[in-house]
Amino acid sequence: MNAAFPRRTAQPSIEPVTLADALVHLRETADSGANDAYITTLITVARQACEDRTERCLITTPWLLTLPAFPAATDRNPLASVCLRLAPAIAVQSVQYLDAAGALQTLDAAAYKLHVHMAPALLSPAPTVLWPATQAGALDAVRIAFTAGYGATAASVPLPLRQWILLAVGEMYETRGASAERPLVRSAFVDHLLDPYRLLGV
């Protein structure tokens, strides 16, 4: 299957952990406001780390996957499925491609099926349908716009993921030296909160 990873085309409107939640967790005074901006940044960093480690999207947002061509059917991928490399994917907005002449085309929604029960989600051509040929040499000949995430509210995100974010925020806040790219979480138990949500073998 494809090795490309999608990119987020819009940031989530909220975080899965609120500032109020973080202040309670950190035992900070809610009305002081002195560290609110810093703690808000830590929440975003922890959420991004959680998403990176699990290859999941927490709050529903739009994504775009680009490929040089549609996959061909093989023994390992008999349906010629495109792996969206993200979970949970909930809807496909469009599948566009550059045809052999370089013109941008949009596939009819009836020509493909999103397997939302898969993690990561797979996009396959409909039965009796073959993926169309694409322009040779174009790195972005296939453009799949889709939506992924558990929902539009913090409560829609599984509790273990939200708890991990809180604990990562606490770790970074306490040490102030933890990596912004990979927050430290010293407890093995805490890091194991992510294990059921990690995408394996992608």
What is the mean predicted local confidence, pLDDT?
Answer: 88
Radius of gyration: 20 Å
What is the strand content? 15-25%
Number of helices: 4
Number of strands: 8
Q: Per CATH, what is the topology of the largest domain?
A: Hypothetical protein yqbg
Biggest sheet descriptor: 5 strands, antiparallel
Do you know the CATH architecture of the largest domain? Orthogonal Bundle
Lateral strand order in the biggest sheet: 1-2-8-4-5
**Amino-to-carboxy terminus distance:** 9 Å
- Kindly give the count of domains: 2
Give the overall silhouette.
elongated
Unreliable residue runs: none
Could you name the CATH class of the largest domain?
A: Mainly Alpha
How would you spell out the order of helices and strands?
EHHEEEEEEEHH
Helix content: 10-25%
Structural class: alpha+beta
Task: Explain what you see.
- The protein has two domains: 7-58 and 153-196, Hypothetical protein yqbg (Orthogonal Bundle), CATH 1.10.3230; 61-148, no CATH class.
- The chain is built from four helices and eight strands; from the N terminus they run βααβββββββαα.
- It has helices at 19-26, 36-54, 159-175, 188-192; strands at residues 7-8, 61-67, 82-83, 89-98, 104-106, 112-115, 122-125, 142-148.
- The strands form two sheets. A five-stranded antiparallel sheet has the order 1-2-8-4-5, with no helix packed on it.
- The protein starts with 6 loop residues before the first strand and ends in a 10-residue tail after the last helix.
